[in-house]
Specification:
The protein has 116 residues and is an alpha+beta fold. Helices cover 22% and strands 42% of the residues. The longest helix has 16 residues, at 72-87.
Length: 116
């Protein structure tokens, strides 16, 4: 996934802690075992520091996964790593909720907290 797509902008309130939640209910990728499409909802919750994630670039970043054969756990951790690198938040959580396939659903949650 091309993490260089992710753009940020200056946080105009860096001295105030506030939470931003971004939800993408139409995330798609491909199962690396079966080649079948996977559909899920990605929820990103973060407390920005000096910069915030620009949403249009995030949309294009998510599209990078559309044809990628990648496991749920790898997707979730990769998104967290790339977004933390891009915006260096005070804290961030990425949660992926995957639609049922074969009667089984999965949710993966990963978190980051900056060292003080």
């Amino acid at each position: 996934m091309n993490k260089e797509i992710i753009e940020v902008f200056d946080n105009t309130f860096p001295n105030r802690d506030y939470t931003i939640e971004i939800v993408n209910p139409e995330f798609t990728s491909v199962c690396p075992k079966t080649g079948l499409p996977d559909f899920g909802t990605i929820t990103i919750t973060y407390v920005p520091d000096k910069s915030c994630i620009e949403l249009k670039s995030l949309k294009y970043y998510f599209l990078e996964f559309r044809n990628a054969g990648i496991f749920y756990e790898n997707i979730t951790n990769t998104i967290l790593d790339h977004l933390v690198e891009a915006c260096q938040p005070k804290s961030m959580t990425v949660k992926t909720d995957w639609n049922a396939r074969g009667g089984i659903t999965e949710t993966v949650t990963v978190s980051y907290t900056a060292e003080k």
